[in-house]
Amino acid sequence: MHTVVPLQRATLTQTGLRTLVMRERSFAARKTLVDQARGEHLHLLVSGLAGRCHLLSDGRRQITGLILPGELCDLGAQVRPQVSASVVALSHCVLGEIPRSAVFESDRVRPACTQFVIAELARETTVTAEWLVSLGRRSAYERMAHLFCELWTRLHAIGMTDGMSFDLGMTQVDLADVLGMTSVHVSRVLKMLSKDGLLKFSARRATILDHDALCRAAAYEPAYLQAGLMQFA
Amino acid sequence: MHTVVPLQRATLTQTGLRTLVMRERSFAARKTLVDQARGEHLHLLVSGLAGRCHLLSDGRRQITGLILPGELCDLGAQVRPQVSASVVALSHCVLGEIPRSAVFESDRVRPACTQFVIAELARETTVTAEWLVSLGRRSAYERMAHLFCELWTRLHAIGMTDGMSFDLGMTQVDLADVLGMTSVHVSRVLKMLSKDGLLKFSARRATILDHDALCRAAAYEPAYLQAGLMQFA
DNA sequence: CGCTACGTTGAGTGGCATCAAGCGCGGTGG
DNA sequence: CCACCGCGCTTGATGCCACTCAACGTAGCG
């Protein structure tokens, strides 16, 4: 079907993924990028912002993870199929297709890729645990502050910040589904953050006005991210 | 320091872990089992119930994962150190020590163990994502119902249910920190569940009175667990 | 027997949801 | 060109779910 890409015994890295992309496809916001079914390809987010999306039968939606450029959309789905989560585009997205065989050999992870796969899963686990703390124990205000601290750290690590600003591309409705609140309340909390001089969010673009104060409001400790991100950079 | 246990080229399985335990230690409830520092051993929960515990500076606590007998406490910490989560005993616990070298070779996962490590991390991710949906989008009542559905499935899979009952060993305060609510409200919700004939919880023991109704109240779909659990059983 | 942890219950409060209306904007088609 | 519409955002009014505070009963335990 497709060419098997040799890995030349090199350890797979996050940046090295791009060389494995065989074909790129473009998606408008709100489109579904990956369903639960596992196909012939792994999907690398080349640009844009995507979200891991869980739907309840009555329409409630929770986004359980944000996928940034350079990350894989469906690594988890390869390892554990039949999980009812899909990946949706939160902004205009470009997706790169990587042949499954470049990372997997039958159902096993190729040895050259194991460290990478483990690191990716570990990073996802770490971020998700922090989100659990947010949803369980932080107020809407703290939660919002914490999310933007996290996003700045992650986007800065991949060179996608512009000073203290960055484009998100996602709407307030999407933010609400990340933070477990309603879009109405997202609007109000953003207004408070702006009034307090911490953060401005408008036209899908965020500007951090006072980074120290924002971190303090969120009780943000970026250590949890640096560990996972640096180990295999 | 300690003997290196040969793995005889066999794939590591969850049950196979027990043969690697070199020493067992006993802990009272509320004791800290594992700190973030990674030591010479991996810790297998032999019996009891443990929780992955995140503390905020003002005392708020969120438990981001429950560890059941047969699971490893600190696999994640081996892969990504310096994460500020500790593992605490929620009931009396017996912990088995497994030499790090049985699973890791310097900082790499031993090839014979990679599938197991990946499966464990993937299972953790799956459960955690479902908890995010609970905390973000389900009411306290639904959340509680969903947790007990999940626990019954997981405990049943390892033969630790007794009909429709099972011992948890954890208090309502612990339940509150799992579910992101106060212990006062836990008490009230449990009373409602009992009045509705779905679930009884007393003396740290749960009895599911109407499994179908409980699943319906929680909109519970056990598929997400079966995948992860069966793959390497 | 006092102490501490756990659980229950009541009264009052508040954070966030819900409902509803209105605005601005970009896209689309007549 | 403009009417129209859908979408995103904002704002106000109202209500409820869950928190807070507080008191008390109970059980296990040193």
Relative helix content of chain A: 25-40%
Assembly form of the protein: homodimer
Mean pLDDT of chain A: 89
Quickly give the CATH architecture of the largest domain in chain A. Answer: Sandwich
- What's the N-to-C terminus distance of chain A? 32 Å
Short description:
The structure is a homodimer of 233-residue chains. By secondary structure, chain A is an alpha+beta fold. Chain A has helices at 75-79, 100-103, 114-137, 140-157, 172-179, 183-195, 211-218, 223-230, and strands at 23-27, 32-34, 41-47, 50-55, 61-67, 86-89, 93-99, 104-105, 108-109, 165-167, 199-202, 205-208.
What does this structure look like?
The structure is a homodimer of 233-residue chains. Chain A is of the alpha+beta class and 233 residues long. Chain A folds into two domains: 96 residues, Jelly Rolls, CATH 2.60.120; 93 residues, Arc Repressor Mutant, subunit A, CATH 1.10.10. Helices cover 38% and strands 23% of the residues of chain A. Chain A contains eight helices and twelve strands. In chain A, the strands form four sheets. The first copy, chain A, has a four-stranded antiparallel beta sheet with strand order 2-6-4-5. The first copy, chain A, has a three-stranded antiparallel beta sheet with strand order 1-7-3. In chain A, helix 4 packs across helix 7. The first copy, chain A, is globular, with a radius of gyration of 18 Å. The two termini of chain A are 32 Å apart. Chains A and B meet through strand 5, strand 9, helix 3 and helix 8 of A and strand 5, strand 9, helix 2 and helix 7 of B. The structure holds a DNA duplex (30 and 30 nucleotides).
